[in-house]
Amino acid sequence: MTPRDAFARLRALEGRWHGHSSDGKTIHLSYEVTGKHSAVIERYRHFFKGKLMEDEMVTVYHLDGEELVLTHYCTLGNQPHMRAELEGDDTVAFRYVGASNLSHPDALRMTGLTFRFEDDDHFTQTWYWDGKKCHIRPENRSDDYDDIPDDGLGADVFQLERVPTGVSLEDIHAHGAT
Question: Residue 97: CB partners within 8 Å, gap ≥ 6?
Answer without folding.
Answer: 81, 82, 83
